[in-house]
Amino acid sequence: MSTPTSATTPTTTSGATWTNWGRNQTCHPAEVVVPRDVDELRATLARAHTRGIPVRAVGSGHSFAPVAVTDGLQLRLDHLAGTTAFDAEAARVTVGAGTPLHVLNPALQALGLALPNLGDIDRQTISGAISTGTHGSGLRRQGIASAVVGLTLALADGSLLRCSADVEPEVFAAARVGLGALGVITEVELQCVPAFRVHAKEFTADLAEVLATVDDDVRAHDHVDMHWFPHTPRVLVKHNDDVGADDPGRVLPAWREKLDDDVLSNGFFELVNRVATRAPRIVPRLAQVTARTLSDREFTGDSWRVFCSPRRVRFREMEYAVPLTSFVPVVTELRAWIDSHDVSLPFPVELRFTGADDIWLSTAHERDNAYVAVHQYHRLDDGGVFAAFEAIVAEHAGRPHWGKLHTLGADQLRALYPRFDDFRIVRDRLDPDRTFTSDHVRHLLGD
Ligand SMILES: Cc1cc2nc3c(=O)[nH]c(=O)nc-3n(C[C@H](O)[C@H](O)[C@H](O)COP(=O)(O)OP(=O)(O)OC[C@H]3O[C@@H](n4cnc5c(N)ncnc54)[C@H](O)[C@@H]3O)c2cc1C
């Protein structure tokens, strides 16, 4: 560890109101600091620590859970962005903590590289994405944090601590999905793969059919991502398979991409949701219409362009990871609950799969997972579905996505994560004075 030597004056504001993307979390940080470089960050931390002010780093505010919320000092790392080192032979790239994925992905492509997997969108920062265990789909792939081979934390006193599998391995096991509770990540080293393209095949299917063949399907394809429309049996199935960087395949015409992404997934879908808000009772009929607008398509594109799409219709989301064997019972129980209750869900339920990893607080810690994600339009009440869904997954060792809605606290989380207390030991060592805390973090970690 090294300690800061200078105190400079970063951009500081106070009294600002912060709201997340889903518009369900708001806070009024006492101070917002946007350090221009690592030295300013270190000096800011040292000052906050001396004064006993709690600190939370924030990324792009795309978490639905209050993980980034603070009434203390909010740190925005917009200036710690971009590539700081590149090892061509090892295919490793080091990037600033505040680098957004939509900047990272084309930058990697320019180097002939890519991340092995991505989630649905690219608006998150790399640090925000890994800190909550952001994932895409693919049983032979892991979440984004698994691509991290090293990272640097700025600790509460302003000192820096680098960790990797060889250096501070316990910190490394904890900090890749660290909930912002150990320190502020300043940079991340990523193990990339050669740039690749993805062949996408999208079609609609019946939910019963999907559940009957899911075990084979998730093993037959690199990435299986499905959207089931509640109140209907319709599922949009996406079978995505990696192909080489030089495989041109069939490119989606620009007009079709625009129709699907801008009109059907965003413009038309926003309209459907506004109608649903005014007349929730017609949602089951609306869902039939929405499901029918989906048509089959097959195309090939750069991996990051295929994985990520624009999401402009705002929603709230709860997502749980369950063991693969629980996938069919969980979806079946959720469907039965929705069908037997007066609830209006215009948004699809997303179904994904990833392979196990070794990160202590990763939802995929030593377990292959199915992910089931329930969404609700941000202007509509959830009608009790989130609580019902939590009760269902509680019977299946469901682990909540750290960035999405859930109510679990330390006692329940300890039972779900075998290394939970090891994480707390690392936290006791790195942040004994609890600088990186909040009500939510205390609820999650127990103090
Ligand atoms: C439209 C939409 C689509 C989504 N799609 C997916 C998906 O496909 N898959 C998936 O798994 N999730 C998905 N998410 C969830 C999202 O990826 C996570 O919530 C992610 O954490 C958001 O990243 P962010 O940069 O906005 O971080 P924030 O939400 O701002 O922060 C998240 C956490 O990271 C911490 N943090 C941020 N920067 C640092 C730092 N430098 N050092 C230490 N801690 C830090 C914060 O303190 C906080 O605890 C989606 C969310 C939305 C709104």
UniProtKB/TrEMBL annotation:
Span of domain FAD-binding PCMH-type: 25-195
Cross-referenced SUPFAM superfamilies: FAD-binding/transporter-associated domain-like (SSF56176)
Keywords on record: Ascorbate biosynthesis, Oxidoreductase
Keyword Oxidoreductase listed: yes
Pathway: Cofactor biosynthesis; L-ascorbate biosynthesis
InterPro entries in the cross-refs: ALO_C, FAD-bd_PCMH, FAD-bd_PCMH-like_sf, FAD-bd_PCMH_sub1, FAD-bd_PCMH_sub2, FAD_lactone_oxidase-like, Oxid_FAD_bind_N, Oxy_OxRdtase_FAD_BS
Stretches the record annotates as Disordered: 1-22
Similarity remark: Belongs to the oxygen-dependent FAD-linked oxidoreductase family.
Annotated PANTHER family: D-ARABINONO-1,4-LACTONE OXIDASE, L-GULONOLACTONE OXIDASE
Record's protein name: D-arabinono-1,4-lactone oxidase
Native species: Pedococcus aerophilus
